[in-house]
Amino acid sequence: MATDNVHNYYETKLKGMLGSESRLAGKNQDYIEDVICLTLNQLPAFYVRFDVDTAAYMSEEEITRVQERLRLALDEAIKQVDAYPHLGD
């Protein structure tokens, strides 16, 4: 059974945000993966098949709300990882 299209909408949007997140510049893979996990753990599951179809059915208000939830969760995750750094970082 192939289920390659099913994924968490928030995960896709978060990964898109990470490239422009200056606070992650120069951070190692462990740090970034911890931030991703802590960010996503704060958000509800939102599984979809196709992002483009999902976005087409969302209002501007819903899209803005998703982006704001992601931004707040990312901010909190970075605070948490910075508060408890890995040894050797």
Radius of gyration: 14 Å
- State the low-pLDDT regions, or none: none
Q: What's the SSE pattern?
A: EHHEHH
Percent strand:
under 5%
Gap from first CA to last CA:
42 Å
Q: Total strand count, please?
A: 2
Major sheet attributes: 2 strands, antiparallel
Q: Name the structural class.
A: mainly alpha
Count, helices: 4
Q: Could you estimate the helical fraction of the residues in percent? A: 55-70%
Query: What is the approximate shape?
Result: globular
Strand order of the largest sheet: 1-2
Mean pLDDT value: 91
Assembly category: single chain
Please indicate the count of domains.
Answer: 1
Topology:
Elements: E1 7-8, H1 9-18, H2 29-41, E2 47-48, H3 51-57, H4 60-83
Antiparallel strand pairs: 1-2
Q: Could you please describe the fold and organization of this structure?
A:
By secondary structure, this protein is mostly helical. The chain has one domain. The protein has helices spanning 9-18, 29-41, 51-57, 60-83; strands at residues 7-8, 47-48. It has a two-stranded antiparallel sheet with strand order 1-2. Helix 2 (29-41) crosses helix 4 (60-83).
Briefly characterize the structure.
The chain is mostly helical and 89 residues long.
Tag the structure with descriptive keywords.
61% helix; 89 residues; mainly alpha; two-stranded antiparallel sheet
